[in-house]
Amino acid sequence: MATATESELARAGDLARKILALPKYRSLDEALVRRVAAEAAQRVRDRGEALKYAKRKLHQGFGAFVHGSPAQSVTGFIGAAQAGAADPRPAALAAMRAHASAAERASWLEPLYDQVASWCGPAGSVADLACGLNPLAIPWMHLAPGAAYWACEIDAALVAALAGLESVLPVAVTARAVDLVAAPPACRADVALLLKTVTTLEQQRPGAAGRVLAALDCAHVIVSLPRRSLSGRREYTDDPAAAVAAAAAGSRYRLRDEAAFGNELVYHLSPEASR
């Protein structure tokens, strides 16, 4: 985009302040909100329409997948697990049902991660990008003892809550607020998870998913796409495997395997040269 004018910078600052004052968005990473506000101010001159544009972009990356507070779901799970239950999975499932996308996956977690393990083996390190509540699925993941789990999200409150998972799960958890569109992380891990994220990245900025894949240094990447939108009104049927392959084209990753679970299409990618 062209360099912003002083007027656009002023409007962007005003937009960011308005967005961050809204309960729905106040926990989002401030740098992300400021980026989206700047884009809106440059693209749309009318203040009201610019606010609508910015909220639509944030909804694409965040709002469509959230019911309630993800951070509260995580802290509720931690509290339930600390109460002494021998098996953390029932509490994890209950917490995941507060998050629309995670809730949809809850009924096929076991076969999903059995399949991932068959492709990748027991992972000693995981990078979970745009993780949502997926870290609550750690009990199903077949991780190696003492595994390291790195997660990122745009919700700063959720990121803060995720750090507490290592108090109740046998993993070392690190979580960061990351804007994948603006700053794809150079992650190194056995397995990277990019679940239900390719389509939302591309909605926000064409080519963003490819830039995320190109930045990774992982032995395996698991990508998933929804068959349909959470509302059920939009079908993702236009050759999804080709969409994944296109996103990977600028990276060293190539599509190796695919599977389907419920509403989710799952793809296994690995580097061109086998490790």
Helix residue percentage:
40-55%
Largest sheet: 7 strands, mixed
- Trace the largest sheet across and list its strands: 3-2-1-4-5-7-6
Q: How does the overall form come out from the CA principal axes?
A: globular
- CATH superfamily of the largest domain, please? Vaccinia Virus protein VP39
Mean pLDDT: 87
> How many structural domains?
2
Number of strands: 7
| Radius of gyration, whole Å | 19 Å
User: How much strand?
Assistant: 15-25%
Poorly predicted spans: none
**Helix count, DSSP H or I runs of 4 or more residues:** 11
Query: Architecture of the largest domain, according to CATH?
Result: 3-Layer(aba) Sandwich
CATH class annotation of the largest domain: Alpha Beta
Element string (H = helix, E = strand): HHHHHHHEEHEEHHEHEE
What is the third-level CATH name, the topology of the largest domain?
Rossmann fold
Structural class designation: alpha/beta
